[in-house]
């Protein structure tokens, strides 16, 4: 199938409210599916919201908000992901969802991929949280570089300023990515972030460049600010108070030009019909991972090994005692470290 209809959800979910966020997501999935979408993409950390306070609050006032975010962040897999998987199955669509993923005592900025046939099939954790984001999220690792073969095309994604990581972008090209998901928060409406006035310029430029350099379609989806977020943040400095709206969403072709959008401010779903056969025209001029590559001059690899505190060791149980142990062919019962 060379024709694919995609949907970019430009919205804010009920802030720091996991159950409400899931309900809103289910409504959007059903709405997009009713319009014939094959792929539905949500903004960065749509469930249950982006931690906008990192740009305006001191640690003293940020800590209670982090605790609320932590309590409302889903595990993968878990009840929230099962409900989204069921909606993807019932609607017959692929879903790419931005999530604050909770794993043990750490949160991750995650893109979760849901197949209509198999439910949750993959997750991408942001490799490097940006600036103040490091007070909220841990880092991903080499397992997070992949593309998904959907049957109609190869689908991949990166989060926010990961798009400035040239090797991350190029690795996606080497994997044959055809449809790229580019997700961001609604920073243009925050004002406390020193980059807020330039954020739309940054994100749209990077998305356009990505499409040209990787010869692929780009679904760009940003979040937005609503009154609930403004009230919850309670920013006191009038110069830093967020405004309603913001964000920039749409779809770009392999030539880096908008084919749908860009859309700003109001909640909406932006649709585009992609003809994947047109990628060959871009590849004709410059296949960045093929005839336009010079592996005899430039070479790199991807370390797919998981990054874990215990390295090669596993946590093993002997009775009620848990210890770290080197892997052996036989030994005590092992507990899962994921």
Please give the structural blueprint:
Blueprint: E1 3-10, H1 18-34, E2 39-41, H2 59-71, H3 79-91, E3 94-103, E4 106-115, E5 119-125, E6 148-149, E7 154-159, H4 166-174, E8 179-184, H5 199-214, E9 217-222, H6 227-233, E10 248-252, E11 258-264, E12 268-275, H7 279-285, E13 314-318, E14 321-325
Parallel strand pairs: 1-2, 2-3, 7-8, 8-9
Antiparallel strand pairs: 1-12, 3-4, 4-5, 6-7, 9-10, 10-11, 13-14
Helix pairs in contact: 1-3
Descriptive overview:
The structure is a single chain. The protein is of the alpha/beta class and 338 residues long. It folds into two domains: 3-285, Carbon-nitrogen hydrolase (Nitrilase/N-carbamoyl-D-aminoacid amidohydrolase); 308-338, no CATH class. 24% of the residues lie in helices and 26% in strands. The chain has seven helices and 14 strands. The protein has helices spanning 18-34, 59-71, 79-91, 166-174, 199-214, 227-233, 279-285; strands at 3-10, 39-41, 94-103, 106-115, 119-125, 148-149, 154-159, 179-184, 217-222, 248-252, 258-264, 268-275, 314-318, 321-325. The strands form three sheets. It has a six-stranded mixed beta sheet with strand order 5-4-3-2-1-12. Strands 6-7-8-9-10-11 form a six-stranded mixed beta sheet, covered by helices on one side. The protein has a two-stranded antiparallel sheet with strand order 13-14. The longest helix is centred in the first third of the chain and has 17 residues, at 18-34.
